[in-house]
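Lab notebook: predicted structure, single chain.

Context: the supervisor wants predicted structures on file for every construct in the current expression panel, including those that have not yet been purified. This is the next one on the list. No modifications to the sequence; it matches the entry in the shared construct table.
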Amino acid sequence: MSSLSASAAGPPPFRDPALPLRKRVDDLLERLTLDERIAMLHQCVPAVPRLGVGSFRTGSEALHGVSWRGVATVFPQAVGLGATWDEDLVHRVAEAVSDELRAFHHHRPLVGGGAPHSLQAWAPVLNLLRDPRWGRNEEGYSEDPLHTGRLGEALCRGLSGDHPAYLRAAPVLKHFLAYNNEDDRCTTSSGLRPRVLHEYDLAAFRPVVASGAATGAMAAYNLVNGRPCHVSPLIEAELRRWAEPTGHELFVVSDAEAPSHLVDLEEYFDDHAESHAAALKAGIDSFTDHGEDSATPVGRLREALERGLIDGADVDRAVRRQLELRFRLGEFDPELDPYAGIGPEVIDCTEHRDLARHAATDSVVLLKNEGLLPLDPARTPRIAVIGPLADTLCEDWYSGTMPYQVSVAAGLSAALGVHGGEVVREEGADRIALRSGTTGEVLGKTAFDVADWGRGVLTLRDAGTGRYLSLKADDSLAADQEVLKSWEIHETFRLEPAGDGAVLLRSVRTGRYAAVDPAGGRVTVTALTPDAAERWQREMLRDGAAEARAAAETADAAVVVLGNHPLINGRETEDRAGLGLPGTQEALLRTVAAARPGTALVVMSSYPYAVDWADEHLPAVVWTSHGGQETGHALAAVLLGEAEPAGRLPQTWYRGEDPLPYPLDYDVIKAGWTYQYHRAAPLYPFGHGLSYTDFAYSDLSLSQPSTGQDGSVDVTVTLANTGRRTGSEVVQLYVRALDARYEAPRRRLADFRKVRLDPGESRELTFPLPADRLAHWSVATGAFTVDPGGYEITVGRSAEHPVLTARLTVTGRAPAPRVVVGRRTLTVDFDDHADTTIVDATCTSGDAVTPADPARPATLLFRDVDLSGAVRVEAETALECAGSGQARLELRAGDRLLAEIGVPVTGDRYTWTAVAADLAAPPAGVHDLWLTLHGGFRLASFSFTTSGGAD
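Prediction complete. Output recorded below exactly as produced.
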């Protein structure tokens, strides 16, 4: 394609805003040389001065405020916004965030120059909170796909604005797909059977994309069914297919360094040119790799072009999507851009501060209350606020820099002060000195306040300055860090017993121990073994638990604030090991409760905790996420009754003794994840949250008792505030299939609405319920289907608190038996399984099944299979190398053996062959079909035929 020159008669067509967007994009694309187009495939896009096209950069983090750009309004973490169950509020938060992003883009240049701050917002995160141990739990909204999709769409619409032609910001959905573990995240594979894929993981992304609210997506680090997400066929087959009716294509970006991981960590391709070509052809439009060094990724793509692995059309597709986005962001029409006039004064403006307080307040969840809350300032004028999070707020990796901080203690102090009350602040931390056994000197010549974050991980804060002890680049130690906010945390340590009362100081980051130079006394963290480490005497200067007990004894009530630091023990790259509070925090809570029975626990955390003891022994338990700058004002308002606790849990809080499934078991159906499939009673269920007022439900009715498989009914219920206070209730509508032929969810959220009512007020609510909300993915037909039969429609206060129930009948033709004769059946389309792993059939497409352990047989079940007329079976197998025994496939109809087929070695996992056998006793009618895999081979499909043949 040749480059066009501008017409002498005037500006080129791409500068003409009167032309259709597609024509403008095509014109500019044609004017770019091939080298210029290839250069646009990197995150940092260079300017094209000859065309007057400026530089461009993908991606600004904007999950709950503008991140990494300096001071900006910080709203509650995404999981906290999820707890609001309030789409309008999330939309308003997103409007504020995008306004501030616009201000940074136009008025705050990047340090070091280059392209302005990107208006492409890398938010929201639509990954479902399947496992509460996930290190990035704080970034998601919910464990439920409908809830996540609704709030994700609200955030996208708030970010993008409401102009028909121009975007305020361009939201990008993260992270596609099935990303819910941090440990070894770049090499682990999320096994998704088709029902889980379509009913659960895709279900959070589908409505947001189909609505047109999203402009892009980011591929995830992990693999799905053995194939890296960055070369997943689902990018085109699902994401872009959903977007087609919207008239705009999605602009898909890679996650940081993920293109290189395809070779370096995942070893999925032989070289980088091959891997980058595969990613481009799979639908990755922009490569976030090697930081700002575009030469390496661009060079790999240029090599791929030279080798014929990609062609100009592949490059053009990706560049066209980028250019369309840039036009929509107003880059080429600054005089028409309705958002160009947003000024720097919006950053941390009064309206955004008020909104931050509103969001933080509405995200607070009252988990338990036996009359202690709300606290009455007249009866409890003196409140002890105790704990490691009592008088501090934390930023997470995707937080902006808070312009100010209102801690819980500060918020309660200000609120109580109006009534003449006071707050007693006590962290409950031990104050220690570490005295060198070699020199007798105290480390840092200061005392340290010790915070235990669990698993033996400590932070040491200088008692005089409040700054954290930090490991420096030269291996020395200095207490000079005001906050913990870096990719690599250098401020966490362990104090390991060394005998005779001595301890060793060990860096969590490096694993090395502190050593002391006996000549000069210099302390460096360089010792590789305990024997080479310095022995320190831990001198207790203040007993934190005793101080906390004393504070509680002198108070009228106690509020204990416990939880996590978002960058320690459960963060990006690191999952949590369990659900329990750190042992010292649990002990502190029990100490305070023993001294002051009127104790409320406030859990400030990025994820659920198993607070079984607190639930059993305390009169009140409250949860908030790390709620941003206004956290203290918000909690004070709720604790003192100036605001209602309006939040509801966006995920299940499990009990401590509940043995959760294996973290890498992504089969939510069989493993029993989330409220939909988990059988054991939770500590606090999905959707749970108490109020200070009372609500009554009545008059549940359906517009008709039955509907067709493509029909709809209206569900109507009356909600009344029967209490004495204005309050908010989240009305939750659940559905359940009765007598399902498949393993149906125990219940599934079908709709919800947040309603605010004054005392004595009632309101009739109507929920449209289309039959497709009752659908499940049929593995027999490869499509969503609504089975005829009975369904239970429930209105409840949570997933485990139904209030009213009605029965709906769906009419229609009953599903026919599964057809397998004369048809290729994919083995991944099983109804049930045991000891299997889903893997990739080829590098580019298709799934197969293999035993999880080649030494143990794996089984697949296909229910209600019509085997009439079948006399022969054929299967597609691949076997890289022979194992200890004969690899073979066994097929049974019920208990009857149909065939046993030996599986030959093919030499490669992607080299497939057909194996076949005549059926020993041709069956008739409908049976449950069992396939048993012996040995480490892969099975992609099978088919039955009505004619025999030679083996």
